[in-house]
Amino acid sequence: NAVLVDGVFLNGPIADARAGEKFVEDACKIIMEEVIQKAADVTEKVCEWQPPEKLKKLLDLEMRDTGEPHQQLLQLCQDVIRYSVKTNHPRFFNQLYAGIDYYSLVARFITEALNPSVYTYEVSPVFLLVEEAVLKKMIEFIGWNEGDGIFNPGGSVSNMYAMNLARYKYCPEIKEKGLSGLPRLVLFTSEECHYSMKKAASFLGIGTQNVYFIKTDERGKMIPEELEKQVQRARKEGAAPFLVSATAGTTVLGAFDPLDKIADICEKYGLWLHVDASWGGSALMSRKHRKLLHGIHRADSVAWNPHKMLMAGIQCCALLAKNNLDLLKKCYSANASYLFQQDKFYDVSYDTGDKSIQCSRRPDAFKFWMTWKALGTTGLEERVNRALALARYFYLKLRLGFFWFGGREYANICFWYIPPSLRDMEEGAEFWEKLHHVAPVIKERMMKKGSMMLGYQPHLGKVNFFRQVVISPQVRREDMDFLLDEIDLLGRD
Ligand code: ABU
Fold first, then answer.
1. pLDDT of residue 324
2. With 90 as the cut, is the pLDDT of residue 397 above it?
3. In this predicted model, what pLDDT tens digit does every residue of 406-415 receive, in sequence order?
4. Residue 417 is assigned to a structural domain of this protein
5. Measuring from atom 3 of ligand 1, which residue has the nearest CA?
6. In a domain, 369, yes or no
7. Are residues 21 and 161 part of one domain?
8. pLDDT given for residue 134 in this prediction
9. Atom of ligand 1 nearest to the CA of 154
10. Percent over 90 (pLDDT), the chain
11. What interhelical angle do 429-449 and 477-490 show, nearest 10?
């Protein structure tokens, strides 16, 4: 009964499903052993660092005409894991995410297996309802009576959504007519803001010169009086101020802008207030620390990434908008007739995909939902409180040679390490020049040894300093002690 079409036999599937299932089963064992268990062990390396040219040789990157056998594919999986950074290692302090959340991980396994796209209820019934439930809860924590939102691929995209939404509110005709005929639009954000503000201004045709950066104090917080001066300056210039983007938890220093005072200025001048709480939004889960975001309920939009402090797995980012005025839908919808038919047999208000700038979209809210279900609100609160307590512990333990700065408000610990050779030197140009090279050298040594990972950067006139970020509940007090000892060890010369 062979059926041959265009020279292709169509009898049975092309691949052996049993071989595929066995591959999944064996690969899952490797993931369990090598990532979930072994990588979380402090006696293991955070990474087995190799330079790019050597790594290319160690990995079999070539894609060939014929497929490769089971064992070889499993070996590839082993190699990929071996040479990747273990971000769930308790001594990975490098980024604004770290650790492993077992529940969101399982959610990821499920969604990867089901492979849904979240745009219509007909293909993602569960995930759309989950997204609605998660957004509702986040809106409640912000303190709004009602609101709307969308999960999207990253805080940068959330900020772009917000900027465009603010502009749409300012001049709704832009959706059809485009940029021509618009006044020079100006937005305001602090000099410590995330670099996505510049990217968004450039991408949206606002122009980076029309982002007015507001001075911050020594803790990294926007100075409201400076904001007001800049708004007045823009008005005098004949420009059209339309948006203030405040930051709750800056990327480098972890500073929180004074939202309530900024909201007063926005109200006075009729400006949209966006809060980039991508990093700091999670403090809302903590009754002890939510005061950091005092005034956030007055924002028109908020970006909040549960994949950071709440460990929902990259990526899990929401843009939330105050009031349910359907603004997202009005601003972004394009009514694709092949997806968003209005004569479907169910309530099409659940086909929420047209609120998004994406078409295909991952069910990211599901990861956060699983974590929230597993830990409860109190468990999430405990996670935030523990991370901030560990940061506090680190400050208390800082000793000779470690010099911190910033506001110490959140989980970013910024410090210079002054090696013994520089400790008696006068703080002149030569001192700062030499200090600038210290963090990169220590970083290189820790990477090559694989003992830990933390970031460094020069920042707003400061020479290279370390930024240590504490997030994961797998981090113990001993790991913080280790970090200090290890820097002393790696930097002693
Ligand atoms: N988008 C901010 C994250 C960068 C970081 O992990 O440091």
1. 76
2. yes
3. 989 999 999 9
4. yes
5. 96
6. no
7. no
8. 98
9. 1
10. 95
11. 120
Q: Which of 305, 335, 364 is the last residue of a domain?
A: 364
User: Which of the four pLDDT bands, split at 50, 70 and 90, describes residue 158?
Assistant: very high
Instruction: State whether 447 and 328 are in the same domain.
Output: no
Secondary structure letter of residue 36 according to DSSP = I
Q: Tokens representing 67?
A: 């497929």
User: Is this structure's pTM higher than 0.90?
Assistant: yes
Q: Which two tokens stand for residue 286?
A: 């903590």
Predicted confidence band of residue 99 (pLDDT cuts 50, 70, 90):
very high
Q: Of 474, 286, 302, give the one whose Cα is nearest residue 380.
A: 286
Examine the domain organization and report whether 437 and 336 are in the same domain.
no
Ligand 1 centre and the CA of 250: distance in Å?
A: 10
**Minimum-distance ligand 1 atom for the alpha carbon of 305:** 1
pLDDT at position 323, please?
A: 86
What's 430's domain CATH number? Answer: 3.90.1150.170
Residue 386 lies inside a defined structural domain of this protein? no
CATH number at residue 326: 3.40.640.10
Q: Which domain covers residue 430, as residue numbers?
A: 17-100+412-469+472-493
**Protein residue closest via CA to atom 2 of ligand 1:** 251
Number of structural domains the chain divides into: 2
pLDDT top residue among 8 and 371: 371
Closest CA to 485 of 444, 448, 442: 442
Find the residues whose C-beta lies inside 6 A of ligand 1: 95-96, 155, 251
Output the CA–CA distances (angstroms, integers) from residue 250 to 41, 49, 297, 328, 404, in the order listed: 30, 29, 19, 26, 16
